[in-house]
Amino acid sequence: MGSLIVGKIRGGVDIRKLGSGNAGGTNALRTQGLAFALGVMVIDVGKGALATWFVPGIDLPFVGASAEISRAWLTLSCAAAAVIGHVWPMWHQFRGGKGAATLIGTLAILAPAILLPIVCIWIVVLVISGYVGLSTILAGVASPVLISVMQLPDAQPVFIYCTVMAMYLLFSHRSNIARMFRGEETQFRRAMIFRRRTE
Predict the structure, then answer these.
(1) 129-187 pLDDT tens trace
(2) Domain boundary pick from 49, 75, 110
(3) Same-domain pairing of 78 and 119
(4) How many domains does the chain divide into?
(5) DSSP letters along 7-58, please?
(6) What is the pLDDT of residues 50-92, one digit of tens each?
(7) Among 47, 97, 137, 193, which residue is least crowded by beta carbons within 10 Å?
(8) Is the pLDDT of residue 122 over 60?
């Protein structure tokens, strides 16, 4: 997990004990600054990309390749495992991030054409609302929509993957959703450039 690796390099910082208590990039940025958060993002995105691109092709000893196993579905399973493992890391007391950065890493391999629209949606929602969680949720929900518009019917397995991962992002961000309904969610006001101009 990126935040714990960078935290150890930085002298044993555990951001799960700071700020929101989440091990993701947003809490890293708020509590440790930009350089720390960038390190976390590089590791978390890279983990998703590596799991999707490299792991499905590993020739494991004593495990024979089966023609009955679809290479496409094996790749998607490895991608999903990387995201789920990021949220519930076995080696870190099952306390991880919320999966967005790792999901982006998987999409960089599975569907790179939708990355730019997803990032644009994330930025627009963040600038308007100031809510990082809402930006991430809406960008995630947009991914199967973009696949359906740009790549169906050829990319049906990826469409299914994006749909399942969008629902998983909703689940992993359930605490953010609850706080938004209660009016208690923290806004990233520095990103709300239009509000600053009108105030």
Answers:
(1) 999 889 999 999 999 999 999 988 888 999 999 999 999 999 999 998 999 999 998 88
(2) 110
(3) no
(4) 2
(5) HHHTTS--GGGSTTS--SHHHHHHHH-HHHHHHHHHHHHHHHHHHHHTGGG-
(6) 999 998 877 766 555 666 678 888 899 999 999 999 888 887 7
(7) 193
(8) yes
**Domain final residue, candidates 81, 110, 139:** 110
Neighbours of 79 (CB within 10 A): 27
Per-residue pLDDT, 37: 77
CB burial of 114-124 (b: ≥16 within 10 Å; e: otherwise) equals beebbeebbee
- Same domain for 141 and 84, yes or no, is no
pLDDT of residue 196: 54
Same domain? For 68 and 136 the reply is no
CA dist 129 → 69, 116, 126, 194 (Å): 44, 20, 5, 10
Q: In angstroms, rounded to a whole number, what is the distance separating the alpha carbons of residues 199 and 51?
A: 45
pTM confidence score: 0.84
Report yes or no: 118 and 125 within 8 Å, Cβ to Cβ.
Answer: no
Tell me which residue has tokens 């306390």.
95
* In a shared domain, residues 7 and 97: yes
